[in-house]
Amino acid sequence: MSRLGTVFSELNKAKRKALIPYIVAGDPERGFTVSLMHRLVKAGADVIEVGVPFSDPMSEGPVIQQGHERALEHGVSLRNVLEMVTAFREEDRDTPVVLMGYANPVVRMGYAAFADACSTAGVDGLITVDLPPEEVADLNQELKRVGIDNIFLISPTTPDARIGTITSTASGFLYYVALKGVTGAGNLDADAVAAYLERIRATTDLPIAVGFGIKDAASAAAIAEYADGVVVGSALVDAIARSVAAGDGLEGAAGVAVKLVEAIRHGVDSRPSAA
Amino acid sequence: MTAETHPDKYASVPDEHGRFGQYGGKFVAETLMTALSELEALYRELANDADFQREFDYDLAHYVGRPSPLYEAQRLSDEIGGARIYLKREDLNHTGAHKVNNTIGQALLAKHMGKKRVIAETGAGQHGVASATVAARLGLECSVFMGEEDIQRQALNVYRMKLLGATVVPVTSGSRTLKDAMNEAMRDWVTNVDETFYIIGSVAGPHPYPMLVRDFQSVIGREARQQSLAMTGKLPDALVACVGGGSNAIGLFHPFLGDESVRIYGVEAGGHGVASGEHAAPLNAGTPGVLHGTRTYLMQDENGQIMHTHSVSAGLDYPGVGPEHAWLKDIGRADYVSANDDEALAAFHRLTRIEGIMPALETAHAMAYAEKLAATMTPEQHIIVNLSGRGDKDILTVAALDGIEL
């Protein structure tokens, strides 16, 4: 079983929910990312989602766009991100790492070379925002060859007929985008999310994580009632950026990130149905 | 719509997946997939609907002012002494460029879908103006996304859009030009997809846009083909058009693709010279990749990051190109060349002084190459250049480049 499969199945047995923080690789500096990943695991992260910087991140709101821009100022490439995962794996053999990004850097590297490099580095899953099932067959073949999960987004606009297509193409887990919009936007309606997750569960046994719009312990707890995992992205990227801008230094920024993730962990674990 | 003049090879693209050979497709976030499918289904239905076609043709005739003339540039041709140069006068359309052909068509689609709001991206502002114009006419809310750098160099068009009632949204991310405006328009669309129709201005973006924009713009080539036969008794020997995203070019080229005797040239923006790296010529110096929902040639670095582009013309300042052009390049049906900033500027002045026609700086790239090409040909041959837009919007830019303060 893949690391993702193992983690979700153990959490399920323990009636716990996955906490999945998202950070942008190399934001604000190259040397920051690997140590931050370790600290997020200690703070309660079950899976780490690592954003691969791209010049044109079309689905990101301003907060994560700026994270990509900061990383690109240091020239952080897909190869560099894979090096970071390699370094992370030297100390952590258990926590799944999922790369999230856009198609072009992967296309440029070549699907076979990318799959091999992910496998060598110890990447467990991939989310490519702009590779819907219709465009993913060639890459999927390569990922399957090396046993890496391909995780797909499902959105509130996805009709039932497509949900089945997506769930039958996906592995690892599914990522429900709780909002029509870009990352970091708006407020979540937990009831609407709950209703939609029912429709997805009718087609699949894969775990479902929910993201886009979870910003604190309360919103994470509300969503964790219904989802198998929650993704926290913009709130975390923003907290780090603000801390750095306030002059806290990298150490201070890491501390702020840890505090936020600990708080969300607590929120998720003390949701009403877990009490 | 134009299948009768084409061998199957050209009429059958894109396929049902929106692909032109290995190019095209739908590389977008899941949230947009359903909107694209609905748009495609509606378009496929309306493209064969006589009432819709009548409505489109009526607007082109009575609102845009079509057909646009084919004009023999006699003095310019005499001066060059080679092939006769004919200009397809898209600059005489309402709003001053070819862009309106497409916005009329897409606004009709928006109306059929019951959308109350339209959005558009713009570089030079021509597509933004054309979108704001049709929005005003149909009483639709309109937001136009425009890079901060382009807002500065196209101030006249910005004010025109505001006069037409559109909101011009400055885009401050990335290189602050057309590609970033398109990112921001996509972000707006993904957020407001239920009530908003995205009027893409070029043959770029995800399927079905490259197909439907091509179909709406193909009126240019259909008219030019008939006009050439009527005026000269034969088809042209060559076609020339500038290529940014490539909508005016595909509009001229497409109805001639099956006429194998007609040579086809797309002219990209050479900026400071293709060798300098500071240009916007992905078909000349780029590699295939995925951007803005489509697989096509891109200006990108070895890590797949999209590179900054440079062109004196905001409308050509784009690191990608429509997927059909990528395919036409690969199969060898069209040649893609380039003209530098300086060459375009010289052509701008020459056409203005010799023919009394002031072309847009984008269009001036096509003129620059057409002059070179004509010089290698004979007076019995003729070339059609798509005079895609008028140059009023560029007067301040030209004055600044000439060191004149207005």
TrEMBL record, chain A:
It comes from Luminiphilus syltensis NOR5-1B. Tetramer of two alpha and two beta chains. The gene is trpA. CDD domains: Tryptophan_synthase_alpha. Belongs to the TrpA family. HAMAP family: Trp_synth_alpha. This is Tryptophan synthase alpha chain. Keywords: Amino-acid biosynthesis, Aromatic amino acid biosynthesis, Lyase, Tryptophan biosynthesis. It is an enzyme of class 4 (lyase). The keyword Glycoprotein does not apply. Gene3D superfamilies: Aldolase class I (3.20.20.70). NCBIfam families: trpA (TIGR00262). It holds the Pfam family Trp_syntA. Its EC number is 4.2.1.20. The keyword S-adenosyl-L-methionine does not apply. The active site is at 49 (proton acceptor), 60 (proton acceptor). InterPro entries: Aldolase_TIM, RibuloseP-bd_barrel, Trp_synthase_alpha_AS, Trp_synthase_suA.
Automatic annotation (TrEMBL), chain B:
InterPro entries: Trp_synth_b_CS (IPR006653), Trp_synth_beta (IPR006654), Trp_synth_beta/beta-like (IPR023026), TrpB-like_PALP (IPR001926), TrpB-like_PALP_sf (IPR036052). Signal peptide: none annotated. The modification N6-(pyridoxal phosphate)lysine is found at residue 99. It comes from the Bacteria. Pathway: Amino-acid biosynthesis; L-tryptophan biosynthesis; L-tryptophan from chorismate: step 5/5. Keywords: Amino-acid biosynthesis, Aromatic amino acid biosynthesis, Lyase, Pyridoxal phosphate, Tryptophan biosynthesis. Tetramer of two alpha and two beta chains. Belongs to the TrpB family. This is Tryptophan synthase beta chain. It comes from Luminiphilus syltensis NOR5-1B. The lineage of its organism: Bacteria, Pseudomonadati, Pseudomonadota, Gammaproteobacteria, Cellvibrionales. The gene is trpB.
